[in-house]
Amino acid sequence: MHFIVEKSKTNTILPKIMRAAVRLFVEKGIDGTTTKDIAAKSGVSEGALYRHFKSKEDLAYHLFAVHVNDFTLDLASRVAEAKDFKHKLHAYITTCFEAFEKERDLFTYLILSEHRELDRFPSTFKHPGHVALDLVAAGQKSGRCRAGDPAIGASILVGSIIRLCIARIHKTIDYDLRQEVDNVTESLWGALLK
Amino acid sequence: MHFIVEKSKTNTILPKIMRAAVRLFVEKGIDGTTTKDIAAKSGVSEGALYRHFKSKEDLAYHLFAVHVNDFTLDLASRVAEAKDFKHKLHAYITTCFEAFEKERDLFTYLILSEHRELDRFPSTFKHPGHVALDLVAAGQKSGRCRAGDPAIGASILVGSIIRLCIARIHKTIDYDLRQEVDNVTESLWGALLK
Amino acid sequence: MHFIVEKSKTNTILPKIMRAAVRLFVEKGIDGTTTKDIAAKSGVSEGALYRHFKSKEDLAYHLFAVHVNDFTLDLASRVAEAKDFKHKLHAYITTCFEAFEKERDLFTYLILSEHRELDRFPSTFKHPGHVALDLVAAGQKSGRCRAGDPAIGASILVGSIIRLCIARIHKTIDYDLRQEVDNVTESLWGALLK
Amino acid sequence: MHFIVEKSKTNTILPKIMRAAVRLFVEKGIDGTTTKDIAAKSGVSEGALYRHFKSKEDLAYHLFAVHVNDFTLDLASRVAEAKDFKHKLHAYITTCFEAFEKERDLFTYLILSEHRELDRFPSTFKHPGHVALDLVAAGQKSGRCRAGDPAIGASILVGSIIRLCIARIHKTIDYDLRQEVDNVTESLWGALLK
DNA sequence: TATGAATGAGGATTCATTCAT
DNA sequence: GATGAATGAATCCTCATTCAT
User: Fold this and answer.
1) pLDDT tens-digit series, residues D82-91
2) Do A82 and A122 share a structural domain?
3) Do C30 and C71 sit in the same domain of this protein?
């Protein structure tokens, strides 16, 4: 996963804007965040925002689009590398929890924005949900997974991960999620198994 | 579960406001919804909103508070009535899917608010998540459920349900979720089981 | 000519906005006038402007459109009533100078805005220039006027009147233009005559 | 008349700025034109504008001041050279129409600025209107012209010319105005004559 | 010297809320 | 009680101007 900070080496202000925006969007929502807020938090003038983004919406959208795309590619490749279904499941969960723990604001933003931004995407856009769907469908084909609509298994997988992250944010869970990877893998394996 | 429409028998305009507001809040978020929107959609004047709610925030809050409470009570009692863990799990899932299919906007508002409006409402409410936590904890005590932090099992349960509803909203799943209750119960049973 | 003040009897704030806007537009131009200026001068809140006009542009346009239309109708009918070409010419000039002296801001606004607003009109829109063109064309048909492109005679007529008004505004001419009607009629009669 | 392009031989960017600015000022007014517009149209950076002009206002002012002065001197000298009143009138009209057809934007800017930007520039400039005033006054003194306030005759002269140019811009007149010089001279001679 | 990114004051417009009818 | 016009603070965005490179 390429993180905000590495996006550009020469440009110093773009990542500052993005970091500030992500933080604020997570904290107060996109509509609840003002351009003045973003400017203040990023240490940049309001006007400067508009050299980099057409509008606040555009900033929100790019933040989502770029990072969902990066993350999904990373996720898909790590799943692909794993040798069998259970390892693939493990890779999926690991990748998510690592991303969450390393870039919590950003990952949270992706979760929260999904509902809002996803409508604007071409439906061909690669998204972690698709990776989950492919994973479950492949598991079914190999005979490991419970039959039926793969959307159900994929929803259980994705929903569980998201909810675990939310629990972590709300401090219902107060330890690093990465230490629960095996545990969670085992549980979801139990859920998907034939 | 007491639904919006039954809340008041004499007052005819209050439920109209609430229905419109819920719909709009789900669609565009609280900050993204204007009082003008609500007035227009409910067929009521903007001024009239303030006869019933102190502010827009107050409307959003009451909408959440009242219904999440009602629903949680209903959920808890239906789970309590079930005789053993698996039936309790089944009752939990059934109650959620029924609520979702009958009052989709309202249920979506209740479950999405927690994700999307992260810190808007205090987490002190009696919430379906608490019922799930109790359910898993009890399952562990009875020796049926996998040990460990019950927050993990509860997150898997709640997250899966939410995600299935979202899939239904996005039409990834295009049939009534109530017909999947047994299926989903079986899967989550697999996830939680020792 | 229907003047701003008579436009609406019940509504008290619309004419206040229009009067203030006309004054300011003439003084500082449309782009040079802020909505704050208009609000302050009309004694109305900035927000209230938007109940009556979609935008500042819309206000400018309506101000132009409504009054050009009213004035043109008045002008055309007074010209039509006059019995022969010279009397028609006299009627044209009188009507213009009367409008200018009675509602100087408004008339000046119409002159100044022509260039800006006229492009947005359907070319079928009735305009004082058309009345002048018809007048000259009719004069040519009757054999009284110099032949050739009637646009030339019409330009001389309209241009002379506008310039006289501008001279009055600049105080190059510092007496009521109505007292020059006969004089100017005589001159323009000399210009148009065969 | 010295035209923009000849103003500076060494500097290549100054005339580019001036041409672009004149064009835009005529099209959208001074307030309606942004420095970004000027930079884009002239192919020069925004920053570079400020090497040549103190401000946008300064640019507009110089554009007007320099050229109105040059043009007025040229106009005055060509009128002075003509031997009698009618030839002077002819020279005035010819000079204007030539300037218009050769440098339409610039001439339009000079003549429209006075109407559209009513009080922007001080009226102390040597201006074509003054030449017209002198011409009519001289005609009256020589006994050729109708008596009375010479401002009236001058307004008719200048207003007619301006309006003919505007008609040409709006394509109400769609042929070169220079071919109408004799015609227009004849008409205005009719207007001014005793 | 020329560039164009950055600034931040200021502009048009919106919106939650109030209040006269 | 209900309405919807009015308010004015707050929002997003633009633009003349500056300045580091």
Assistant:
1) 999 999 999 9
2) yes
3) no
Positions of chain E reached by protein Cβ under 7 A? 1-20
pLDDT of residue A37: 97
Q: How far is C50 from chain D (nearest CA, A)?
A: 22
| Shortest CA gap C141–chain D (Å) | 18
Shortest Cα distance, chain B CAs vs residue A28, angstroms: 8
Q: Closest partner residue to A148 among B123, B183, B190, by Cβ? A: B183
For residue range D115-165, list pLDDT tens digits in order: 777 678 877 778 899 999 999 999 999 988 989 999 999 999 999 999 999
- Which nucleotide is closest to A47, CA to C1'? E7
Is position A165 within any domain?
A: yes
For the whole model, what pTM was predicted?
Answer: 0.89
What does the pLDDT average to over C113-130? 84
Question: Closest protein residue to E14 using CA and C1' atoms?
Answer: C47
Does A103 share its domain with A168?
yes
Task: Calculate the angstrom distance between C1' of E11 and CA of B64.
Answer: 38
Supply the DSSP symbol for A157.
H
Q: Domain of residue D178: give its range.
A: 61-192
* Nucleotide minimizing C1' to CA distance for residue A45: E7
Query: What is the total count of domains within chain A?
Result: 2
D22 and D81 within one domain: no
Residues B45 and B120 in one domain: no
- Helix/strand/coil for A193: strand
- On the question of pLDDT at C10 being above 60, the answer is no
Same domain, C178 and C146: yes
Domain-ending residue, one of B53, B69, B84: B53
Tokens of D4: 């923009």
- Residue A161 pLDDT > 70, yes or no? yes
Q: Is the dihedral of CA D120, C4, C165, C138 positive or negative?
A: positive
Q: In chain B, what residues touch A170 (CB-CB under 8 Å)?
A: 123
